[in-house]
């Protein structure tokens, strides 16, 4: 199996994110491998362990994204590539998906491209499907379980999480898969993995390296807003017994027309 | 008939429309006047003509229906072919969709087909210099951004569940319906079947959510059965008793059950119940947090709830800073009492 996992570097989810001079800032909070992408890395390694092959991790990002790639290498990915080009600046999903699809074409023949369900920063959750569309591969998003992979028959069977419940789907390979947390806990990097990752050479591919004329972004962001501070004064309900406290709370909820 | 400048895609599961589709129609109606346009509903599927009438009852001025037996199951590639085809022909300025698992794929693909932008999870729309500016949360709601596609058409905007009200349907409303059969190409994807989830109220649709956190296992007075000797298993057993109390309250309120990441990571409850930055982002009318301290990643997922009630032992818990009402106390005492009080009030 020749597998690519597409990852992004994001601020840690515990970061306090604010707007400063019109730009997003997360203070000195660490940048990490997007938490959803850890699940994609885990899933790719499991498929490799079951069927053999190679896992290449790629990321579109600035120099710092090398750290996210190294994290994925430390977990067990075999190779990493950083996609970087001036034309990827201010990338919206249209640009990002074009760059990722170009990298996947260059890495072809492939069996699978894996993604996390979304990134915790821009949080659009559309890139995987856009890459699939550009490549003409089936798109299997929100995958909660990979039921079977048949490298000879060139198929994959998965269970997807829809609002209405689980959906079982079989698709032909190569395919794009985005995974949710239910596929299982990502592994921790091993000591050997960390050593290997620290020495790894991570090549950079430019748009020209991939034969790509990147589209111009369609979406612009004219304003960033810190959400209005919820100025709630918390009304503490205290009473002599839980029953009285409960009755008081229900009465207040009625008065405020919440119920 | 002059084609409308605004199209709304009606999302459905096997022919049954999702409520978010009607909210999307409402969202479109808020920009229709300033764009001097009606709103055309776009329905794709197999035997889905009745959805056109439903859409018109919910405010659409006209409907376009495209049908084929091979469109019975939603497959994004086939649906995108049909939707992109209709848009290329009718050339609207804006396509509004609800945001669901299906439409996230569909909107993404149609945007690639038409080389345009896509903005999911919009919570507000406004028209500025004949472009739709959408406000959407990023960093799980820690920030909001305004997004606009000034040069490409159509703009594709997907609105978040419950961000807009559901219009009251009026079955007396009538409008033209253009029905046609289509012949989709072959698909590399085969839907094998569906398995219903546990049957509870869905978190993203719920108007009331009762959530439990790490504190749910915090009850030393409960004695686990003797066959459970492992300490971790005893903790999980206690947590299950606590979540049972939460479920009882949820059932009286017709609410969904949520949980913090701490509770999910500790194995108390499945991940599908998780609310927060790496779970579901929700905005119910009433959110009752039981034994949840209020880590920033949890607050990010529920801060826009209309009214938040917090029940926690620790008076210093950060959740109280966001809550409208708070009770400091043992959830094992407060939750059952509150369930009874709700039951009495609601006559159940």
List keywords for this structure.
heterodimer, A: 259 residues, alpha/beta, Rossmann fold, 2 domains, nine-stranded mixed sheet, 6 helices, 15 strands, 29% helix, 30% strand, globular, B: 348 residues, seven-stranded parallel sheet, five-stranded parallel sheet, 30% helix
Reconstruct the topology from this structure.
The complex is a heterodimer of chains A (259) and B (348).
Chain A: E1 2-7, E2 9-11, E3 18-20, E4 23-25, E5 31-33, H1 35-51, E6 54-60, H2 65-75, E7 79-83, H3 93-107, E8 112-116, H4 127-135, E9 139-150, E10 155-162, E11 165-172, E12 175-179, H5 191-199, E13 204-205, E14 220-225, E15 235-236, H6 242-255
Parallel strand pairs in A: 1-6, 1-8, 6-7, 7-13, 8-12, 9-12
Antiparallel strand pairs in A: 2-5, 3-4, 9-10, 10-11
Helix pairs in contact in A: 2-5, 3-4
Chain B: E1 6-9, E2 12-13, E3 16-17, H1 19-32, E4 39-45, H2 49-57, E5 62-67, H3 76-90, E6 94-98, H4 101-113, E7 118-122, E8 124-128, E9 131-138, E10 143-148, E11 155-159, E12 177-181, E13 189-196, E14 208-212, H5 231-253, E15 256-259, H6 261-265, E16 286-290, H7 296-302, E17 307-312, H8 319-322, E18 325-328, H9 331-346
Parallel strand pairs in B: 1-4, 1-6, 4-5, 5-12, 6-11, 7-11, 14-15, 14-16, 16-17, 17-18
Antiparallel strand pairs in B: 2-3, 8-9, 9-10
Helix pairs in contact in B: 3-4, 5-9
What's the CATH topology name of the largest domain in chain A?
Rossmann fold
Strand content of chain A: 25-35%
Instruction: Please give the CATH class of the largest domain in chain A.
Output: Alpha Beta
Strand pairing plus helix content of chain A: what structural class?
alpha/beta
Radius of gyration of chain B: 23 Å
End-to-end Cα distance of chain A: 55 Å
DSSP helix fraction of chain B: 25-40%
């Amino acid at each position: 199996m020749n597998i690519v996992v597409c990852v992004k570097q994001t601020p840690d989810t515990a970061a306090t994110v604010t707007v400063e001079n019109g730009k997003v800032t997360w203070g000195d909070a660490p940048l990490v491998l997007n938490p959803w992408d850890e699940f994609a890395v885990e899933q790719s390694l499991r498929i490799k362990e079951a069927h053999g092959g190679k896992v290449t991790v790629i990321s579109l990002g600035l120099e710092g994204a090398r750290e996210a790639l190294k994290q994925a290498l430390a977990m067990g990915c075999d190779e990493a590539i950083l996609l970087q080009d001036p034309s990827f600046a201010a990338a919206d999903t249209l640009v990002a998906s074009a760059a990722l699809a170009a990298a996947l074409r260059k890495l072809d023949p492939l069996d699978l491209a894996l993604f996390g369900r979304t990134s915790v920063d821009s949080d659009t959750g559309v890139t995987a499907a856009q890459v699939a569309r550009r490549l003409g591969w089936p798109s299997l998003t929100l995958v909660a379980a990979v039921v079977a992979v048949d490298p000879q028959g060139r198929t994959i069977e998965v269970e997807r999480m829809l609002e209405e419940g689980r959906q079982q789907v079989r698709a032909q390979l190569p395919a794009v898969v985005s995974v949710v947390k239910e596929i299982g806990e990502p592994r921790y990097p091993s000591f050997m993995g960390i050593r290997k990752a620290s020495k790894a050479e991570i090549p950079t591919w430019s748009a020209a390296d991939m034969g790509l004329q990147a589209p111009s972004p369609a979406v612009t962001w004219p304003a960033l807003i810190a959400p209005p501070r919820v100025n709630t004064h918390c009304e503490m309900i205290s009473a002599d017994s839980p029953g009285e406290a409960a009755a008081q709370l229900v009465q207040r909820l009625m008065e405020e027309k919440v119920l | 008939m002059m084609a409308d400048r605004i199209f709304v895609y009606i999302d459905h599961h096997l022919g049954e429309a999702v409520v978010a589709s009607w909210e999307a129609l409402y969202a479109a109606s808020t920009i229709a006047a300033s764009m001097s346009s009606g709103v055309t509903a776009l329905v794709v599927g197999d035997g889905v003509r009745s959805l056109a009438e439903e859409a018109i009852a919910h405010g659409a001025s006209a409907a376009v229906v495209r049908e084929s037996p091979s469109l019975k199951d939603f497959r994004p590639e086939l649906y995108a072919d049909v939707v992109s085809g209709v848009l290329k022909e009718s050339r609207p300025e804006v396509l509004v969709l609800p945001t669901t698992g299906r439409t996230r794929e569909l909107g993404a693909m149609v945007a690639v087909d038409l080389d345009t932008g896509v903005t999911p999870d919009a919570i507000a729309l406004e028209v500025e210099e004949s472009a739709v500016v959408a406000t959407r949360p990023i960093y799980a709601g820690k920030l909001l951004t305004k997004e606009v596609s000034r040069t490409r058409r159509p703009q594709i905007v997907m609105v978040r569940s419950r961000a807009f009200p559901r219009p009251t349907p009026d079955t007396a409303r009538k409008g033209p319906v253009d029905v046609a059969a289509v012949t989709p190409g072959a698909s590399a994807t085969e839907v094998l079947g569906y398995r219903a989830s546990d049957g509870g109220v869905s978190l993203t649709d719920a108007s009331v959510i009762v959530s439990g956190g790490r504190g749910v296992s915090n009850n030393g007075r409960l004695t686990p059965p003797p066959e459970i000797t492992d300490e971790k298993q005893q903790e999980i057993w206690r947590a299950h008793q606590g979540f049972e109390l939460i479920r009882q309250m949820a059932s009286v309120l017709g609410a969904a059950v949520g949980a913090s990441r701490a509770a999910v990571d500790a194995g108390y409850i499945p991940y599908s119940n998780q609310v927060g930055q790496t779970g579901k982002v929700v905005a119910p009318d009433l959110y009752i947090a039981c034994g949840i301290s209020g880590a920033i990643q949890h607050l990010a997922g529920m801060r826009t709830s209309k009214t938040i009630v917090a029940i926690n032992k620790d008076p210093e818990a950060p959740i109280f800073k966001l809550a409208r009402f708070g009770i400091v106390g043992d959830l094992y005492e407060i939750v059952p009492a509150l369930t009874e009080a709700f039951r009495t009030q609601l006559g159940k």
